[in-house]
TrEMBL record:
NDH-1 is composed of 14 different subunits. Subunits NuoA, H, J, K, L, M, N constitute the membrane sector of the complex. This is NADH-quinone oxidoreductase subunit H. InterPro entries: NADH_UbQ_OxRdtase_su1/FPO (IPR001694), NADH_UbQ_OxRdtase_su1_CS (IPR018086). It holds the Pfam family NADHdh. One of its GO terms (molecular function) is oxidoreductase activity, acting on NAD(P)H, quinone or similar compound as acceptor. The lineage of its organism: Bacteria, Pseudomonadati, Aquificota, Aquificia, Aquificales. The gene is nuoH2. It is a multi-pass membrane protein. Belongs to the complex I subunit 1 family. It catalyses: a quinone + NADH + 5 H(+)(in) = a quinol + NAD(+) + 4 H(+)(out). NDH-1 shuttles electrons from NADH, via FMN and iron-sulfur (Fe-S) centers, to quinones in the respiratory chain. The immediate electron acceptor for the enzyme in this species is believed to be ubiquinone. Couples the redox reaction to proton translocation (for every two electrons transferred, four hydrogen ions are translocated across the cytoplasmic membrane), and thus conserves the redox energy in a proton gradient. This subunit may bind ubiquinone. Keywords: Cell inner membrane, Cell membrane, Membrane, NAD, Quinone, Translocase, Transmembrane, Transmembrane helix, Ubiquinone.
Amino acid sequence: MENIVASLIIVGIKILVLLAIVLGLGAYLTLVERKVAAHIQRRPGPMVVGWHGLLQPLADGLKLLTKEDLFPRYGNKFLYNLAIVMALVPASLVFAVIPFGPEFEVFGIRVKPILTDVNVGLLLFFALGSLAVYAIALAGWASNSKYALIGSMRKAGIVISYEVVITFAAMGPIILAQSLSTYSIVQNQIDQKLWYIWLQPVAFVVYMFAMLAETGRVPFDVQEAEAELVTGFTVEYGGMKFGLFPLVEWYVETLSLSAIGVILFLGGWSSINIPFVGFFDPLFFLGPLSPFVWFLLKVGLVFLFVLWLHWTLPRYRIDQITSTAWKVMLPLTFVNLVFTALIAPLVWK
């Protein structure tokens, strides 16, 4: 009985910590993006509200909360509100299968820094992630606006195309690790002393570009092209409802896909095989915190890479986006799977 109570307490603490991290980071990643964009464009970005603009996300949140909540006259109110729930809840749930570090001990109890280590964790991740297309389709249709509907249909077409691509890109590391468990994939890379990016460079590049498409980032942001669709499927949303969609799509989803990319290709929390470092951990002085710091650093670098591309590349046309998915990226993943099948027995040894 005591073990059950202790386990429930640990799970409850994990949930609270996870929600605090995800929602807190989601808010402040808006500031990170504004600062990165500003420096790319040679300007300082937010500087007034707090030191170097540190309180700007709080000011933005208060502004959105105090705005009037309007609703389109001939829209479907139930589906209009349901779209927000379907966007936010699955995007938050995917973090349940993301491990943030190795197992550690607290008061004699072994704790894994993952909410649930199921043996089909990646399958659950992609299944929850695919629900985003329903939220976008509902938002566009329920708003009763041609701009919103066109934007949602564009986004649905992109997501359907790149869901297939990103899944096949992830198949290479899955085959090498012989597991769908996110924790096991990282542990296998540690045991084999090999990050899978060295064996899966093509899959990693495809994954990164598919991640841009999944999250609606440039050059794949045709669903909200301002000059054509006036922000697309969110055009009829106002106040905090308007703020939640970019928070989920641009930040929470990008963060979760960055974390999965680190788990699949960059060894998760492992410091083994880091370029120019080898098998020496330069953060050894942090002790047991070192793996957690490595994981956050890797996720942060992948996220910053996404921001760099977002503020550098031009926008593609919708036909270019879909044809690239089906005619270029998908065949590349098939070739990569054949290559993986040939080298997998060598890795398993």
